[in-house]
Amino acid sequence: MTIAACYLSSEGVVFGADSTTTMFVSAPVRGAKGMEHHYNYAQKIFEIGDHSTLAIAVWGLGNLPQTSYRTLIAQFADSISAQGVQRMADVANQWNQFFWSVYSTEQQQVLHRARVLHGQAARSREEQEELDFLLQAFSGGFCLGGYVMNDRTPSAFEIKYDPTMTAPAPVDPLSTGSTRFWGCPNLIHRLIYGIDFQVLGAVLESGKWSGSNEELFALVGPHCLGQPHDLPIREAIDWLHASIYTTNKTMKFSHMAPVCGGPVEVAVITTDRPFRWVRHKRFDAAIEEGGLV
Amino acid sequence: MTLDTSQRDLQQQIEAKLQQMPPADWVRDMLDHYRRTGSYRPEDLRRLLGDPNKAVEVGPNVSLSSFFTTGRSDR
């Protein structure tokens, strides 16, 4: 899994992500089971082009079968560079279409099966488990942000996909001063709001809560932490780094497998400069694991 | 922050109660599935860590109740 985040500030856009990618490694012998491995040096934030004012963060599906995100994003950079796109919303929409065309081609069989299962009026338990698996394994999204040179107004857009969709979903703009978390967002949700949707749902559906939804919110609400508006850019960087680091370490010191972890990568695009890495792994980061050279 | 005696007692009672509680069926199933297969079931990941298809938004204009009334932060 991933913990990815984006903060949209009036000074620019901050991207953050962990570095863990989970891959199922099959056993070489037929009938023997494989095992999920958690690799801690994946990259989930990419500059779109070189010396660019655009970047993208990814979560969900690790890669397409034939084309890596790195390659796709580079191809997209070439495409928009040749066109000279004028508006950030156009950049986001074009990426949405660009990705969808490759995703729906390379994952054609998965999409077909997911749509069939999703369209059924009723599903057996096995079918529901299969659909859950397809949604978990083949969904994901992107946060594309930055600015275009003729404008310099920072903006960011959420772009999501899943295998039951028949066409790309509309892109969704972030508002200034807000942060969005994707992938594994429950831990930060609990930290800020004191509860998460699954726990709220479990209470409401338990049959033991006789009050209204609003009464439950009234109980929990005062325990939420308020949030500042439009942080200075370095504070926004600190906030994203801290929240991703917290998620990583919470997973590490929990009873669950470390599905988020590895180095925290952070990048920023300020309105007066192109893309810059704040924290970025060197290419020998995996070799130097543990700090030994 | 220092807890007074009654608060400390209450905390100890809650901790003792939590330790005595058997794990929920889904927790047992999750751990069993992980031991057998080396992977988590999608519904367990969603339940504990969050829905990979939905964002959580944090900001000055987002409130807990707005999640449910507008769906704003649970995208």
How would you characterize this protein structure?
The complex is a heterodimer of chains A (293) and B (75). Chain A has 293 residues and is α+β, with helices and mostly antiparallel strands. Chain A has one domain: Aminohydrolase, N-terminal nucleophile (Ntn) domain (Glutamine Phosphoribosylpyrophosphate, subunit 1, domain 1), CATH 3.60.20.10. Chain A is built from eight helices and twelve strands. Chain A has helices at 69-83, 88-106, 108-119, 125-137, 186-193, 197-205, 213-220, 233-252; strands at residues 3-9, 12-17, 21-25, 35-39, 45-47, 54-60, 140-146, 155-161, 172-173, 179-183, 265-270, 275-279. In chain A, strands 10-1-2-11-12 form a five-stranded antiparallel sheet, with helices on one face. In chain A, strands 5-6-7-8-9 form a five-stranded antiparallel sheet, with helices on one face. In chain A, helix 3 crosses helix 4. Chain B has one domain. Chain B is mainly alpha-helical and 75 residues long. Chain B contains four helices and one strand; from the N terminus they run αααβα. In chain B, 25% of the residues are buried.
Topology diagram in text:
The complex is a heterodimer of chains A (293) and B (75).
Chain A: E1 3-9, E2 12-17, E3 21-25, E4 35-39, E5 45-47, E6 54-60, H1 69-83, H2 88-106, H3 108-119, H4 125-137, E7 140-146, E8 155-161, E9 172-173, E10 179-183, H5 186-193, H6 197-205, H7 213-220, H8 233-252, E11 265-270, E12 275-279
Antiparallel strand pairs in A: 1-2, 1-10, 2-11, 3-4, 5-6, 6-7, 7-8, 8-9, 11-12
Helix pairs in contact in A: 3-4
Chain B: H1 5-20, H2 25-37, H3 42-49, E1 56-58, H4 64-70
